[in-house]
Write a structure and sequence with these properties.
The complex is a heterodimer of chains A (324) and B (437). In chain A, 69% of the residues lie in helices and 1% in strands. Chain A is built from 12 helices and 2 strands. Chain A is flat and about 80 Å long. By secondary structure, chain B is mostly helical. Chain B is 69% helix and 0% strand. In chain B, helix 1 runs antiparallel to helix 2 and helix 5 runs parallel beside helix 8. Classes of the chains: A mainly alpha (324), B mainly alpha (437). At the A-B interface, helix 2, helix 3, helix 4, helix 5 and helix 6 of A face helix 2, helix 3, helix 5, helix 6 and helix 7 of B.
Chain lengths: 324, 437
């Protein structure tokens, strides 16, 4: 005889009887996990609260004004120039860093012998751990004079390209040199992500390309790089996020100038993060509020960039197993 | 199946005793290593490099009105790769030439990453050694003015400040990070995906934004708690920056703990809590330490958030919960902008100490992570030859004893044996295939 319950479609109700310790444990662990959520919400909230006076004061002109005088009698301040500088420095940094990161990731994965691989990976991690203060100090004291020669060459010989022209022949403390130093900081992050992604390439496809007679570079170009496309983009975007938020190295190198200029190589530059660092000491109440508004903008932008990066990496074919 | 037809055997000449030379042992098989890059190729590579460097030296330093070593290096590199490509193309053809060309380009890219590291470390060392005296670690800048020579003053206050602030950050973020990792890995559920996403997003928060947040929340007076600058506030900001990295590394390590261990613990009647604290966390101990140390290395070097949370000072300030406190990154950052050479030298020494601390932490992290691997393989180590011999001797002794016992039993049986034998003879032999009726 088949009992009635066998023809019932509803599943049996499962009752989980946890020991009392476990109830507290699970609640506690959930609270720890929720702390991260609460923290991010708090960061956004508090920055917004402190930024409100400045936003109310400036209105939409916050996004269009070039200069920064929030504590003057008639406050006039905006992040147009500093935002431009931030993006410019990030673009320069990425232009240098992305090809080098791809080359390094390929070298570690495809070209280096096994023992050298471990050493190189350790060196990349070490580069990521070096404080940005050190990069800034070294960039200002050592790298700057080396790159002034490059800047002068570009300006004098390729000056017909509007980017490279330097009207007043001052080549130091420019956005360009800041971009070069920031690229050094972006490199380890981008290289790590790309290396992990490239190492997920299915060996069968690589060996197939080699068996069909491809040279090593041909195999890389036809198998590894298309496979790792998501990782390249994701790694670059992570690097972009880091470059946008870089404070101390930029603050040590640039001499602040509030203008949107296409003269990348000339003296003077700026970025949102370095503005906050440099102006914090002498800011009064409205000035602080304006700095908070700038910080809020930076926070939102880096958040968006980082989220896009992790979505791109995890959705790509190569990034399934990669932790971004 | 088709069979391959063998050709008819040709008549063999009558066998003759082989000459003595053929009795020599067969030669050892030679290992063939398929190489495409031979000695001559190394010659081509270095020849092109040398010629490019020499040619460019003449052109750059003597003929063209250019200056600076960077230009020289760049131009000789361009000449080098064009020469190399042309030579290899003439020798081996287009395909191989392009492949070697790309190999050189990629190797250069990798060098471009590693050479700066060497330059940075050597530069900071050479610049920082000047003021690296015992006094640097014991004196403060309390009585030192900007014009004072290098022999006066030190950075003891900064070092103490950094240690205290980083300690605060570690105490807050390491337990929280491990707890979050436990949540993500052991408990999971619907909340895990957004939390993981947010932790990843938090790793990209700029350090200065974390500093601004703590200033708004803790330090500042309007809207915040108004506690003023303190080392504790700096520790809070640093813990925000450490948390994502500790969480991520811990989660990865917890994931590596085999599920069998957890299931065994649960099967033995342990609660999930006991499983986690007694089985999972101790197993992952090495990796958790590595994650914590790596996070600490990151926190030690952060400068930007310190500007608005601990503010820095020239005095030794031991109370981490209130009052401006110095720290090593701020010490260097503030002093480097001074026009006095002595102050700048102090800044460089501060940077040197900072790099050494980061390097030491990094090495500790690697060793702690590596030790984990060592310990696991030690259990599976093969026994030594002497141990094997001892074991064999023991087994032989046991065998001998067993045989002796059997022999004694057989003798005793045979003494009793005639009765049993007769009984066995009467019973018909049992055929295992026939069923017993």
């Amino acid at each position: 005889m088949i009992p009635d319950s066998a023809t019932d479609e509803t599943p049996r109700e499962v009752v989980v009887n946890r020991p009392r310790v476990d109830r507290f444990y699970r609640v506690g662990a959930r609270m720890a996990g929720g702390t991260a959520l609460v923290l991010m919400a708090l960061i956004g909230l508090f920055l917004l609260l402190r930024a409100l006076p400045a936003i109310r004061e400036a209105g939409f002109s916050f996004l269009t004004t070039f200069e920064w005088n929030p504590d003057a009698t008639t406050p006039k301040f905006g992040i147009a120039a500093v935002m431009f500088g931030t993006i410019l420095i990030a673009v320069i940094a990425l232009t240098i860093a992305v090809p080098v990161a791809i080359a390094t990731a390929l070298f570690i994965n495809e070209y280096a012998p096994r023992r050298l691989q471990r050493v190189l990976i350790a060196i990349v991690d070490l580069l990521a751990a070096i404080p940005s203060l050190i990069y800034g100090l070294w960039g200002r004291a050592y790298l700057q004079e080396k790159f002034i020669g490059v800047a002068r060459f570009l300006s004098e010989n390729l000056g017909f390209i509007p980017f490279f022209k330097v009207p007043n022949h001052r080549y130091d403390s420019s956005n360009f040199i800041a971009g070069v130093v920031v690229s050094l900081m972006v490199l380890p992050i981008a290289t790590s992500v790309m290396r992990e992604v490239f190492s997920q390439t299915p060996p069968g496809e690589k060996e197939g390309a080699l068996a069909l007679g491809a040279t090593r570079w041909g195999m890389i170009r036809s198998v590894v790089l298309p496979f790792g496309r998501g990782g390249i983009i994701g790694g670059s975007m992570l690097g972009l996020g880091r470059a946008l938020g870089e404070t101390i190295a930029v603050a040590l190198i640039i001499s602040p100038k509030f203008e949107i200029t296409k003269n990348v190589l000339s003296e003077g530059g700026n970025s949102v993060a370095s503005l906050i660092a440099l102006r914090f000491g002498e800011a009064k109440s409205l000035g602080l509020s304006a700095l908070m508004a700038a910080g809020l903008t930076l926070f939102i932008i880096t958040l968006i960039v980082n989220m896009l990066a992790s979505i791109i990496v995890s959705r790509s074919r190569s990034g399934k197993g990669v932790e971004v | 199946m088709t069979r391959v037809l063998e050709p008819p055997a040709t008549p063999q000449p009558p066998a003759r005793p082989p000459p003595a030379a053929a009795l020599a042992p067969a030669p050892e098989p030679v290992r063939i290593r398929p190489r495409t890059f031979h000695g001559s190729d190394y010659g081509v590579l270095f020849g092109c490099a040398l010629s490019a460097l020499s040619l460019m030296w003449v052109a750059y330093y003597r003929v063209l009105p250019l200056t600076g070593p960077v230009g020289y290096v760049l131009l000789s590199y361009v000449v080098f790769i064009t020469t190399y490509y042309s030579v290899v193309r003439q020798m081996h053809g287009r395909v191989l030439a392009f492949d070697r060309f790309m190999t050189v380009v990629i190797a250069t890219g990798a060098l471009a990453l590693f050479v700066p590291l060497l330059l940075i470390i050597t530069y900071v060392f050479t610049k920082g050694v000047k003021a690296l005296t015992f006094a640097f670690f014991t004196e403060t800048l309390e009585f030192v003015g900007p014009l004072d020579p290098l022999s006066k003053g030190g950075a003891a206050h900064a070092i103490v400040g950094t240690l205290e602030q980083v300690a605060v950050a570690v105490v807050i973020s390491v337990p929280l990070g491990i707890a979050t990792a436990v949540f993500l890995n052991e408990i999971g559920g619907r909340l895990a995906r957004p939390v993981r996403f947010i932790v990843d997003a938090m790793s990209g928060v700029p350090s200065i934004v974390a500093g601004l947040f703590i200033f708004a929340l803790w330090v500042g007076r309007d809207g915040g708690l108004g506690r003023g600058f303190s080392g504790f506030a700096a520790g809070l900001a640093l813990s925000i920056l450490m948390l994502p990295s500790v969480t991520r590394t811990s989660e990865e390590v917890l994931r590596l703990v085999p599920d069998g261990l957890r299931e065994a613990s649960l099967a033995l009647g342990g609660s999930e809590f006991r499983t986690t604290t007694n089985v999972v966390l101790p197993t992952a101990r090495g990796g958790l330490i590595t994650g914590a140390v790596l996070g600490t290395a990151r926190a030690v070097g952060e400068t930007a958030p310190l500007i608005m949370t601990s503010f820095g000072s020239s005095f030794m300030h031991l109370n981490v919960f209130s009052g401006d406190q110095a720290s090593l990154p701020l010490f260097s950052y503030r002093l480097i902008n001074s026009p006095e050479a002595a102050q700048q030298a102090r800044a460089w020494t501060g940077a040197l100490v900072l790099i050494v601390i980061v390097l030491v932490l990094f090495t500790i992290a690697r060793i702690a992570g590596g030790e984990r691997r060592e310990r696991r393989s030690r259990g599976a180590r093969k026994p030594s030859a002497a141990a094997v011999r001892r074991q064999a001797a023991r087994e032989a002794a046991r065998e001998a004893a067993r045989r002796r016992v059997e022999q004694d039993r057989a003798e005793a049986d045979s003494a009793r044996g005639t009765v049993d034998d007769e009984a066995k003879r009467d019973d018909p032999p049992r055929d295992p295939e026939q069923p017993e009726s």
